[in-house]
Design a protein that fits this description.
Rossmann fold, six-stranded antiparallel beta sheet, five-stranded parallel beta sheet, 20 helices, 19 strands, 35% helix, 14% strand
Length: 555
């Protein structure tokens, strides 16, 4: 497999206790692990489907070498965690017959913390917790989310929404569907979930994309001015009307009009809105005649409109007309696997604004990032009442710090103000902060005082230089790991780039991404197209060979 582009993975727009939208509770979702934090911040957001845990008695090992994680958009470009802070001695995750999962830390060489609770041996996690998403800290600088994903989720245009959770994927599919229509759209979601972004995406994906797009916050318009602002007025219609005004509908003619906080529309204006939707006609204040407009209406609300209808504060016909096409946005607590992705996206944006974008990749002499892993774990466990907007405020604060002297702690006072009522969204285990710290301290003391075993000694390896590794050792290690470059680099104690240089200098080895069409055609002829024989004969990984053949149009 060739060296992977390590750029940041955006997702311009899961986890939940009880799914409340779309098809998030469909059967067939399988357990997955998503990287919420890695010392190399560009790897945050990578994931792996752990199908072994989809059936009872399945087990998966989590260590320096397994499993392999990949960006959602590049599933073939998978690599192991390969963090020097992780051990090859694994933590195990096992599925049980009652649908729960067991975290087994007995073999692990470093502390394992599950939803803020240190695991000295084993911990059973109920199925409802995994449905919501369980935060697992492994060895300190790696934070994972154990959750469920729909493996059949089809890719969709990204629409500049940040995220790769099932919930965001559903939103993207709905945007693509309603954008082709002319009917009104109602975008629903809690405050801070990105309703305006979705409304703009619907417009930009429609045939009206090159026409006007205007936005109005109905909560910000005084009731006395709402009709004039929306539908316009003629000159002299009222005191101060010294000139005619087309209004938002008139100025948006041919395009789209986004009405945010639609639930705050004054009752007298609701009837006029319904008339526009039914006839396409608006009447300016003070005018004798109606005029025809062609406007696609997109509305948004975080209110329970159904209750407003029941109470008589919102006209039922208007609601049913608006809700004919509806897009529901999941709250951030129901797309917890996106927390790390969104955080990196916002940090990059904020650092670029400060002219310090290079600091995103800064690490210290030990290879640790300036962004502390426990802070990301805390963010992942938080309930996010303010959703994505609130997370952006946290990112803005973190970006404002001088990273090289970063002293922010998990209980930083300013961070606490940004995260009021901090804690898990329906915590898996009920434990106080003092209990957590006591358990973790006891666990670390026990491990540090334990006599070293042969396995421990194997972990205390010095970083090697490429010149220490001869051609025979290189070929032997590559063959032992089926020519997978990530595991081989970790096994040899060198970096991936250094391993690439050694392979390039070897007399018989080659990297899969350097294979030519002629070499592949000759190998196919020699081995009669047998794939297992082919990758072994070429001494490249099976996945790398498949990817290279796909790149050359030979798959």
């Amino acid at each position: 497999m060739g060296e992977r582009d390590r750029g940041l993975f955006d997702l311009d727009a899961d986890t939940r206790q009880v799914p409340q939208y779309d098809q998030m509770a469909l059967p067939g979702r399988v357990p997955a692990l998503t990287l919420l934090y890695h010392p190399r911040l560009t790897r945050i957001g990578e994931r792996v489907l752990v199908r072994e845990l989809a059936s009872p008695s399945g087990r998966v090992a989590v260590s320096r070498l397994t499993p392999e994680f990949a960006p959602p958009s590049q599933p073939a470009a998978a690599l192991p965690l390969a963090s020097p802070f992780l051990s090859r001695r694994p933590m195990w995750i096992a599925s049980e017959y009652d649908g729960s999962f067991t975290i087994d830390a007995r073999e692990a060489a470093a502390a394992v913390i599950v939803d803020g609770v240190a695991v000295p041996a084993t911990l059973n996690v109920p199925a409802t917790a995994v449905e919501r998403g369980v935060v697992v800290e492994v060895g300190g600088p790696v934070v994972l989310l154990l959750h469920l994903l729909d493996p059949a989720q089809k890719p969709a245009e990204r629409f500049e929404l940040v995220g790769d959770s099932d919930g965001v994927a559903q939103v993207r599919h709905h945007i693509a569907r309603v954008a082709r229509l002319q009917a009104p759209v109602l975008v629903r979601g809690e405050t801070g979930t990105g309703k305006e972004l979705v409304a703009r995406a619907v417009h930009d994906a429609s045939e009206r994309a090159d026409k006007p797009y205007l936005t109005v916050n109905m909560a910000a318009i005084p009731s006395s001015l709402a009709a004039s602002e929306l539908f316009g007025h003629v000159r002299g219609a009222f005191s101060g009307a010294s000139h005619a005004n087309l209004g938002f509908f008139g100025r948006a003619d041919g395009g789209s009009l986004f009405l945010d906080e639609i639930g705050d529309t004054p009752p007298e204006v609701q009837a006029a809105l319904l008339r526009v939707l039914e006839t396409g006609e608006v009447q300016q204040v003070g005018a004798d005649k109606h005029r025809q407009v062609d406007v696609r209406l997109i509305a948004a609300t975080d209110a329970n409109i159904e209750k407003e209808v029941e109470a008589g504060r919102f006209r039922a016909p208007l609601f049913y007309r608006l809700a004919n096409q509806e897009i529901r946005l999941p709250p951030l607590r129901e797309r917890r696997d996106d927390v790390g992705r969104l955080l990196i996206h916002f940090l990059r944006h904020e650092l670029e604004a400060l002219g310090r974008e290079s600091e995103l990749l800064d690490v210290d002499a030990q290879g640790m990032s300036w962004l502390p892993a426990p802070i990301v774990a805390r963010l992942a466990r938080y309930a996010w009442p303010g959703n994505v907007r609130q997370l952006r405020n946290v990112a803005r604060y973190l970006a404002s710090l001088e990273h090289r002297q970063l002293a922010v702690q998990v209980d930083d006072p300013h961070l606490n103000r940004l995260l009021p009522n901090a804690g898990s969204a329906v915590p898996t285990i009920d434990a106080s902060a003092d209990e957590i710290r006591a358990r973790l301290a006891a666990l670390e003391a026990e491990r540090s005082s334990a006599p070293a075993t042969a396995g421990d000694a194997a972990e205390v390896e010095k970083k090697r230089t490429p010149s220490d590794i001869g051609p025979d050792e290189l070929e032997r290690v590559l063959a032992a790991v089926d020519y997978k470059l990530g595991p081989a680099a970790a096994e040899l104690g060198i970096s991936r780039p250094a391993l690439n240089d050694l392979v390039d200098a070897h007399p018989t080895l080659v990297r899969a991404n350097n294979l030519t069409r002629e070499q592949l055609l000759a190998a196919l002829e020699d081995h009669e197209g047998a794939p297992d024989a082919l990758w072994k004969a070429l001494k490249v990984s099976k996945r790398g060979l498949k990817l290279r053949m796909s790149e050359l149009g030979m798959s």
